[in-house]
Amino acid sequence: MEYFELNDMKNIPLAKPDIQDIDIQEVVKVLKSGNLVQGKYVKDLENQTKELIQVNNCTAVSSGTASLHIALISLGVGYGDEVILPAFSFIATANVVELIGAKCVFVDINSEYFTLDPFKIEAAVTPKTKAIIVVHEFGLCANMEAISDIANRFGLPIIEDAACALGAKIGNFYAGSFGNIGSFSLHPRKAITSGEGGLLVTNEFDLDTKFKALRNHGIDPNSKTVDFIDAGFNYRMTDFQGALALSQLRRIHDTLLYKDGLAKSYLEKLNKNICLPEVPPNYQHTWQTFHITLNSNRERRLLQEYLSVNGIQTNYGAQCIPAMTYYNKKYKHNSIEDFPNSWRAYSTGLALPIYELLTEIQLNYIINTINKFYNNAV
Ligand SMILES: *Cc1c(COP(=O)(O)O)cnc(C)c1O
């Protein structure tokens, strides 16, 4: 802990993984064993994830981006196909579509929840549409009932980009269990981490066979002899990464409960000039990001500078992807008109610190600093 002081007010990072001694001991066990890649711990991590999310199959891979890449290939999406995805997400959601030679068909988000607007999907469907990627942005599930209805009507598979949503729920059902494929990230910014890592879940055995082949050079995972059933990658997870994530997974409910408490304090105490995130009834947010939106881009810049001067790190929540240089050049959208909610979230949104190691005292300091900014400004 020498680099991180409890209740330090001069240096509050946006995020910080909680690596405990028990986690470190588990990692050391793997390193001492010499079995470094995709062994017992990765297998246990997959089994525990299946149990948590209530799905039949889980495959661990080297990142959340690798898992999205494998998901698209496993569904047979490729060159010339179209994939529907939200205009507001982390860029990886779109990059994987480009990397398989398919076309991104962006759809706007709704303004309250930052997730795909189900009412705008149908107009984006064409005979070339091959899949819908739904993003559970910031850890809140999208409206899966409405989106599944549309997908079923057009016979389209759903990939849930649940990178931020391990443990998120609608009613009793977990993110990742609604679509054909659920994809998670174990990057240090997410609820639990393996350093770099990802998880794929599905109830379909044939899809899981493809996942396991594609992560490991195309080797048939169900055969005793070595045979190659696909042109695969090396997207394997190391066993010490598996041990780290497994150790953290054991306390995920406590982690999420603590973050829920932090979020509730933000929601209760932050100045009402700020547009606060909303959670629909019956939905359980993971609060991977606590994302506020402000009245203008200028207000965002001034608040961010004020917080930075006061030792509080913040960042933009996600991108309006069609407005980023590569996508703007290729698809030539006018994002302000075509995706107004995504543009607004991108240009006025701010992610505030929220993580297990953030203390109540630090949280109150952040809230008071933000409220002081508004009291001074008004
Ligand atoms: C973090 C994230 C990813 C990428 O995950 P990595 O593990 O960093 O590759 C993809 N999509 C979303 C929505 C994310 O937040």
For the structure shown, list the relevant keywords:
378 residues; alpha/beta; seven-stranded mixed β-sheet; three-stranded antiparallel β-sheet; 13 helices; globular; binds pyridoxal-5'-phosphate
Outline the structure in words.
There is one protein chain. This protein is an alpha/beta fold. It is built from 13 helices and 14 strands. α1 (21-33) packs antiparallel against α7 (239-249). The longest helix is centred in the last third of the chain and has 18 residues, at 252-269. It binds pyridoxal-5'-phosphate. The site of pyridoxal-5'-phosphate (PLP) has 14 residues, from α3 and α4.
User: What fraction strand?
Assistant: 5-15%
Unreliable stretches covering 5 or more consecutive residues: none
Output the helix-strand order: HHEHEEHEEHEEEEEHHHEEHEHHHEH
Task: Calculate the terminal CA-CA distance, rounded to whole Å.
Answer: 40 Å
The structural class is alpha/beta
Largest sheet: 7 strands, mixed
Overall shape: it is: globular
Report the average pLDDT across residues.
96
Report strand order across the widest sheet: 1-10-9-6-5-2-4
The tally of strands reads 14
Number of helices: 13
Specify the helix fraction band: 25-40%
Rounded to the nearest angstrom, the radius of gyration is: 21 Å
> Which ligands appear in the coordinates?
pyridoxal-5'-phosphate
Describe the secondary structure blueprint for this structure.
Elements: H1 21-33, H2 40-53, E1 57-61, H3 64-74, E2 82-86, E3 88-89, H4 92-99, E4 103-107, E5 129-135, H5 144-154, E6 158-161, E7 169-170, E8 173-174, E9 181-185, E10 198-202, H6 205-214, H7 239-249, H8 252-269, E11 283-284, E12 290-293, H9 297-309, E13 319-320, H10 325-331, H11 335-338, H12 340-348, E14 349-352, H13 360-377
Parallel strand pairs: 2-4, 2-5, 5-6, 6-9
Antiparallel strand pairs: 1-10, 3-13, 7-8, 7-11, 9-10, 12-14
Helix pairs in contact: 1-7, 2-7, 3-4, 3-6, 8-13
Pyridoxal-5'-phosphate (PLP) is lined by residues 63-65, 89-90, 92-93, 135, 161, 163-164, 185, 187, 198.
